[in-house]
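Key idea: predict the complex, not the pieces.
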Amino acid sequence: MGNGTNLGRVRGLGSANEGAHHWWQQRVTAAANLFLMLWFLLAIAQAPGYDFDSIRLWLSSAWVAIPLLLLIASVFYHFRLGLQVVIEDYQHGENRVALMLLLNFFTVAAAGVAIFSILKIAFTGVPK
Amino acid sequence: MASKAPNRPLSPHLMHVRWPINMMVSIIHRATGSGMATVGTALLVWWLAALAAGKESYAYFMSWFTGDWAPLGYVIGVGLTLSLFQHMASGVRHFVMDVGANYELKGNRTTAWLTFAFSLTATVLFWAYVTMGK
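Result:
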């Protein structure tokens, strides 16, 4: 077994040296989420109205569309990392692999729809 | 594989152990995160997609959370904001513990209570502003 001996390392069984990667990414996105979600809550609370025209107009501003795109990227990556840990804790064997794949597809598909929607609104504004 | 379960004492069941506040904050951090990642994501994406699709789609989306369905809208809206503020507060508490601080029993317990105080206060203030502020 690769327990850190020279032979183990030669056989490629040593540490992959990426043990902290997931942990660190979760902390970095958490910090970004903190600022982006505080902005989002304040912006939503102060929006002039919640009807179709008001929200379309609000979202067609770059000052709203860009932070919202960044929020989607950071929050979605963060919850993908978080749900991964939940799956790893409670599911084992084939279920774990299947759920992990499902999680990746869900995250990417949801992000795709969200990003396209924001861009479409940002580029077309309030329809006549 | 053993075919019969051995007749040994079971590990302490959830109902038999104490529920310290620190443990509650930890499990609620996971629960709120999982809830927002699924329900919150679905609603956020639906909201954005409906808004991008047009007036009818947006009206259909809103019809599920306003008018006759307003109670559902408030339950989900308040639930999600409460989850968000709670996850945010316990997340900040996590940052402090990540740097190795706040492991003293008293301080750890006090900050655990503070996360609930923050999330409840922030949720009340947010909805008071949104519903009565204009």
